Amino acid sequence: MANVPVREASATAAPKEHSGGRRRGRSGAWGAGFVAPHALGLALFTLVPIGIALFMSLTDWPMLGSPSWIGLGNYQDLLSDPTFRTALGNTFLFVVLYVPLNLVVSLGMAAWLSPRIRGRQIFRVIFFLPTVTPIVANAVVWRMLYRPGGAIDATAQSFFGIKTPDFLADPNWAMIAIVVMSVWQGFGYNMIVFSSALDSVPESQLEAASLDGANAWTVFWRIKLPLISPSLFFATTMTLITAFQVFIQPYIMTRGGPGDSTVTLVQFIYNQGFTFQKLGLASAAAWVLFVIILGITAVQFLGQKKWVHYE
């Protein structure tokens, strides 16, 4: 008699477990249904194009005509192409000049726009406007500013009595001019990121440092900067990725000139694919750019443990 309740309990427990399994199955089906559109979009618009681009990089694929398999031939051609090496060097030069300057300007402006500044929100909007303005329009305006007789040249002659060089036609100045325009265009985004991070620094720590006699520079360098290091890491990573893909500024302002002094990797890819109709070579150059960005980003993530503080 003592075993009867045990059998009855086990008999009644089985349907509950079965019902729970059905509920989990229905939940999984609903989850798969919600994920399916995003997974399909990822496959169609990301994974499939990546696979096609990799295949194209291993072929001689004219824009009009049938592709032919050449293996690593395109990559060998890139290594022996002086224009590609020049574009690679120009891209790294732009990154080396642009990224530190962008971060320094945006961080400096964010530190200046403290809550004690009157009209702080207005200044934020003004500095952020170039970021949301169409970059093509900005490049056209700056090209007009840089030309001989433009606003920069006229101002220099009026106030200092000197004539400025033709920035965009001088190989020594063209890349610098593009970097300056790019910093003006892009520093507003990082400024907003840094400004928000600085606003979140606990006042108690700042007050404690002030009571200990720390000056403004010490407070910024020893307290604020470590506390906003996650935002600094994010801004550095995103700015680097964007800088390696620079295209519109040199394309609109100089067309890669004078000579090849401002040709970048993305412009090289564009020229090979749409001007010379060498889609295979363009795809190979795109994969080289992808590997460079992936490698530098990986190094950043590996090195963040030494200077990024998330606590």
* Classification by helices and strands: mainly alpha
End-to-end separation in angstroms reads 62 Å
Total DSSP E strands: 2
Mass-distribution shape:
globular
Please state the average pLDDT score.
Answer: 88
Low-pLDDT parts are 6-11
Radius of gyration over alpha carbons? 28 Å
Order of helices and strands: HEEHHHHHHHHHHHH
Q: Given the structure, what is the number of helices?
A: 13
Helix content: over 70%
Topology, please?
Elements: H1 4-57, E1 59-60, E2 68-69, H2 73-79, H3 82-112, H4 120-132, H5 135-146, H6 151-160, H7 174-199, H8 203-211, H9 216-227, H10 229-244, H11 248-253, H12 265-275, H13 279-303
Antiparallel strand pairs: 1-2
Helix pairs in contact: 1-13, 2-13, 3-7, 3-10, 4-7, 10-13, 12-13
What do these coordinates show?
The chain is mainly alpha-helical. It contains 13 helices and 2 strands. Strands 1-2 form a two-stranded antiparallel ribbon. A hairpin with a 7-residue loop joins strand 1 and strand 2. The longest helix is centred in the N-terminal third of the chain and has 54 residues, at 4-57. The chain is globular and about 75 Å long. It starts with a helix and ends in an 8-residue tail after the last helix.
